[in-house]
Amino acid sequence: MRATIFHAPGQVTVEDRPSPFAGPGEVRLRVAAASLCASDVRVYRGEKHAEPGVIPGHEVSGVVDQVGEGVTEVAEGDRVILCPIVACNRCRFCLLGRRNRCTERRTLGYDLDGGFAEYLRVPAEIVSTGHVIRVPDALPLDLAAITEPAACTLASLELCEVGAGTSMAILGAGPMGLMHLLLGRALGAGPIIVSEPVAERRALASRWGADLVLDPAVDDVRAAVRDATGDGADAVIVSVGLGSLVAPALDLVRPQGVVNLFAGFPKGAPPVPFDPNLVHYGEVVLTGSQNATTDQYRRTAQLLGHVPHMDELLTNRYLIEDAPEAYSARLALSGLKSLVEFPGVDER
Q1: Are 50 and 56 in contact (CB under 8 A)?
Q2: pTM for the structure as a whole
Q3: What span, in angstroms and rounded, lies between the C-alpha atoms of 34 and 32?
């Protein structure tokens, strides 16, 4: 089979690899689509670790085409997505149903082979824990491939208790900031204010339903958020891994509101200065969110096809031979989500 291989930061190639087979407890996925994550780009830049020689791709959809001995959870022909976490099922978080917080977790695309290949062997630990999730018949598998980042977004919004009438400020209108906008609007949030320095992305945020779109280089974001909300946003989402956004985020939230550092930050980045009195006297919750629970994956798979504009996030599409170009596009901020797809897999 043809597969994309990560060798080292800045080194990604497309090569022949032996096609995997499903062993006992495992299934094999014929990959339909796999999308590139900001974390994959951080690996490419050398800001995050992945095993040399691994096949990237943890945002993946496909069709089960081989079932190993003893598997009863899924069947050949099932259209599925994966929660890409291999959990220990012993630590306190696993026992609480929060395998995304597993202290010994391994992840497809970083520690184990992922979906940037024609076939993916799904480990028995993923199958047995219900991390192979069927998707609705009406959901196209290219869109299903972004269930993972959408589930992470849902986890972020639920952590911030976003619902009908929740005011939100989103710092950054890249793929994940825009996904927060779309899912936040689907949950009934409003007003939603977006701050983004790139004009093209501000235009998208406006067209996709933001109540107010600001250019932080020109606009007084704090004054605009106060004017729109009264005393600050209920929830502020930092969707870009820039330490310089933490202090402004704390300046935008209302007393007893929530600031979520959703994006990952580069290791070794300078310390982030902010006024701790904004947290103390404002009784502000400063938190972060990372990945999602299995239940959030399941609910996201049901929700995804009903969210307007979600499919428009898939701007850059590549065949497997051109997969390295997906990294180049993201580095150049070209488009939004980059997708490696395998035509014909979803034919029914």
Answers
A1: yes
A2: 0.95
A3: 7
Q: Which residue has the tokens 């945020």?
A: 205
3-state helix vs strand vs coil in the chain, percent to 5: 30, 25, 45
Helices 147-159 and 294-303, axial angle in degrees (round to 10): 110
265 contacts 271 by C-beta, under 8 angstroms:
no
CATH superfamily of 2-134+309-341: Medium-chain alcohol dehydrogenases, catalytic domain (3.90.180.10)
Q: Domain extents for the chain? A: 2-134+309-341, 153-288
pLDDT digits 0-9 by tens, 10-50: 999 999 999 999 999 999 999 999 999 988 999 999 989 99
**Which residue is it, tokens 């589930």?**
151
**pLDDT class of 247 with cuts at 50, 70, 90:** very high
Domain 153-288 architecture: 3-Layer(aba) Sandwich (3.40)
Determine the length of the chain. Answer: 348
Q: Which residues does 313 contact at the CB level (< 8 Å), separation at least 6?
A: 146, 175, 178, 179, 336, 337
